[in-house]
Amino acid sequence: MNVLSKRFAKIKEHFEKEAAVFDKLFFKVVPRYQEMMEAIIEAIPFPKQDKLKIIDLGCGTGNLTQKLIGAYPNAYVTCIDMAENMLKMAKAKLKRKPNVSFWLGDIRNFDYSGKYDVIVASMVLHHIDKKDKVRFYRKLYNTLSKGGVFYVMDIFLSPGNYLQKLYIDKWKIFMKTNGLPKKEVDNMIARHQREDRPVIFEDELSIMRKAGFTHVDVILKHYNFIVYGVRRIRLK
Ligand SMILES: C[S@@+](CC[C@H](N)C(=O)[O-])C[C@H]1O[C@@H](n2cnc3c(N)ncnc32)[C@H](O)[C@@H]1O
C-alpha cells in the first residue's frame, strides 16, 4: 500500500480498532442504513442472472457486498478497503463466495484499467478531500462500462446553518434512540467533525459533472444522509 497521509493513517487506525464491533455499532449510527443499501441494489438496471463486474469502494466489513451477491449471485465483486481488519471481517462474512475478491489499499490507488458495470460506495467518499475528488471520480467514470452505474450513499452538509443544525440534532436523536450512550453519541459527532470531509450536495453534483457524470440524481434522502447516483450513458 502507498504511504498514507497523516489524516488517512488516523482514519485507518480508527477502523482497524473498530472492525470487530463495527457491525454492531454502524446500524445504530447510520439512519436507515439497511433501506439505503437496498435502494442502491434496487436501482441496479441489470438482470439478476448477469455476470456483472462490481467494485465496492471502502467495503468495510462487507455489508453491501453481501447484499449485492445475494441479489446478483453471478456477479463478481472486488472489495476495496485500506483497513486490514475491516477486510478480515468482510472475508469472514463472505467466505463461501468465490466470486468476491479483496484489495487492500487506498481506493484512489486501485488499478482502474478494467471495465466495471457497477461501482458502489457506502459511507466512504466523505473521507476523500474535495480537491481530490474530480480526479478520482474521473477514474471511476472511465472504468464504468457503457450503461454502467455508480451509486453512492453518504453524509453531506447543508448549505444553510439552520438545516445543518437540524440534521445534526436529528442524527443525535437517532443514535440515542438506538441505544448509544450520550458520551458515545458526542464522540461520534466530534469524530465526524474532526475527521470527515463532507461537502454540500450541490458541490458534489458539480464535482460529478466535472468528472464526466451527467444526470446524477438523488434516490433517497434522510436529512444529511443521501443515496444518489448515475448511469453512464455515453462511452466518451
Ligand atoms: C464508515 S466505513 C463504511 C464501510 C462500508 N462501506 C459500509 O457501509 O458498511 C468506511 C470504510 O472506508 C474505508 N476507507 C476510508 N477511506 C478509504 C480510502 N481512502 N481507501 C480505502 N478505504 C477507505 C475505511 O477503512 C472503512 O472500512
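qc> The longest strand covers residues 144-155.
qc> done
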